[in-house]
Amino acid sequence: MPDEKTIAPRSDSLGDYLKSVRLGQGLTLRDVERLTENDVSNAYLSQLENRKIEKPSPHILYALSNAYRISYKNLMSRAGYVIPQDKSRGTADKHGNAATFAIENLSAQEEAALLEYLAFFRSKRGSS
């Protein structure tokens, strides 16, 4: 992933940033359309770059981050989406971002029992 600080200075405008990155990589609007496998049309990208569209969907931002090989989190932030901070929240973090335990107020003992059952279930499923 290229160093984004060398590609473009931080701008308040997502459109200015996207245009700067695209031009810095020597890409045309049509090149980006091909790189995103038509997920982002050249017309839509032009509207983004010219501030006609200011908050594209996360899907569009993901396609652009892959095409440009830049941080998806950075694009989400520039588009105004709230990015969760990486803070330790106790037992919830050890399971990643998946909704491992949707039931609230599980005790540590209940969580341990569920994890034990899950391990048992997976071992039985694997031996079938």
How is this fold's topology laid out?
Elements: H1 4-7, H2 14-24, H3 29-35, H4 42-49, H5 58-68, H6 72-78, H7 108-126
Question: How would you describe this protein?
Answer:
By secondary structure, the chain is mostly helical. The chain has 2 domains: 4-78, 434 Repressor (Amino-terminal Domain) (Orthogonal Bundle); 90-126, no CATH class. The protein is 52% helix and 0% strand. Helix 3 (29-35) crosses helix 4 (42-49). It starts with a helix and ends with a helix.
Defining key terms:
0% strand, 128 residues, 2 domains, Lambda_DNA-bd_dom_sf, HTH cro/C1-type domain-containing protein, elongated, 434 Repressor (Amino-terminal Domain), mainly alpha
Summarize the structure.
α3 (29-35) crosses α4 (42-49). The protein has 2 domains: 4-78, lambda repressor-like DNA-binding domains (434 Repressor (Amino-terminal Domain), Orthogonal Bundle), CATH 1.10.260.40; 90-126, no CATH class.
**pLDDT under 50 segments (min length 5)?**
3-10, 90-94
CATH topology type of the largest domain:
434 Repressor (Amino-terminal Domain)
Order of helical and strand elements: HHHHHHH
Please tally the helical runs, counting DSSP H or I stretches of 4 or more residues.
7
Specify the CATH architecture of the largest domain.
Answer: Orthogonal Bundle
Count of domains = 2
Helix/strand/pairing category: mainly alpha
Question: What would the average pLDDT be, to the nearest integer?
Answer: 79
From the alpha carbons, calculate the radius of gyration and give it in angstroms. 21 Å
CATH class of the largest domain: Mainly Alpha
- β-strand amount: under 5%
Distance between the termini: 42 Å
Number of E-type strands: 0
Shape: elongated
What is the name of the CATH superfamily of the largest domain? lambda repressor-like DNA-binding domains
Helicity level, as a percent range? Answer: 40-55%
